[in-house]
Design goal:
This protein is mainly α and 153 residues long. It has helices at 3-13, 19-33, 41-45, 55-65, 70-87, 89-100, 103-114, 118-134, 139-150.
Length: 153
């Protein structure tokens, strides 16, 4: 199978309603690990879906995404967030929490948001404002610092 077919397999089986779907999903993810290519990262972020009940397998996908270079991960996340949030707001927020909890990722994310197109920057800062308003420190403080850098003139 090529990478496109493997991503199609992930999407076809992402709800993991049966043992066969879980096995197909995990097989496709393992095969993708043999063909690391950051070109496909935006499509992989779109596999995440809040309707999936197999959270541990979705975390496997997140760990796979984290195996890519940090800058590539963050760029793909920013580029796909407007489509990702449609079916995966909870996973989107989990990913943002992870970014906020890592100094290097948080600093790079701030810089990348500052230089990205306004639509996705606005969406990212909106989600960060939700975190700043509803979470306690250090998450709220980290979210505020990213917002201040991302929206600085």
């Amino acid at each position: 199978m090529n990478v496109t077919q493997l991503i199609e397999t992930l999407n076809a089986n992402k709800f993991m309603r049966s043992d066969e779907e879980v096995m197909s999903f995990e097989y496709a993810l393992a095969e993708l690990a043999l063909h690391l290519n950051s070109e496909y990262l935006p499509e992989l972020y779109l596999v995440l879906d809040d309707r999936c009940k197999q959270h541990e397998v979705m975390y496997g996908l997140i760990h796979f995404l984290e195996s890519f270079e940090l800058k590539d991960q963050l760029q793909a996340f920013i580029d796909s967030i407007d489509r990702m949030i449609v079916n995966a707001k909870e996973w989107t927020m989990i990913l943002i929490y992870g970014i906020l909890n890592q100094d290097l990722a948080r600093n790079l994310y701030s810089q990348m948001l500052h230089s990205t197109d306004s639509q996705n920057r606005n969406l990212c800062t909106h989600l960060l404002r939700e975190i700043a308003a509803h979470e306690s420190p250090p998450l709220s403080t980290h979210a505020e610092s990213v917002i201040s850098i991302a929206t600085a003139n």
